[in-house]
Design goal:
139 residues, alpha+beta, N-terminal domain of TfIIb, GMP Synthetase, Chain A, domain 3, 2 domains, 3-stranded mixed beta sheet, 33% helix, OsmC/Ohr_fam, Putative redox protein, KH_dom-like_a/b, OsmC/Ohrsf
Amino acid sequence: MKTTINWTGDASFRATTGSGHDIQMDGPPDHGGQNQGARPMEMMLVGLGGCTSFDVMSILHKSRQDVTDCRAEIEAERADTVPSVFTRIHIHFHVTGNNLKEKQVERAIRLSAEHYCSASIMLEKAGVEITHEYTIHNG
């Protein structure tokens, strides 16, 4: 896996992923940025959310659950001192589908958190407390 980060001026950077996708990152105006892209720490949450959501959907599909939508809302707390590392992250899954089995949704989230999501497991090993919650919606 490979990524290249190029400075584009002020506090702005463009990341190019190994798969050929560009992502703009920028700092807030009070830190020299122009708010033209996501903050790097936001990108870490995006990576975590994408990783665990991919796992959860894959597991639910393999268990033949009729999922029509899945949304992960992620909230994080950071340390007040430098470095401002994540200290707590809470992930709330909203899973929508037809006749979804609660045990299957709970199992998919647990398996992602404990066995499959590399981002989640890596952050927990670094001391970040990660909690999960889910709501099942019919439809």
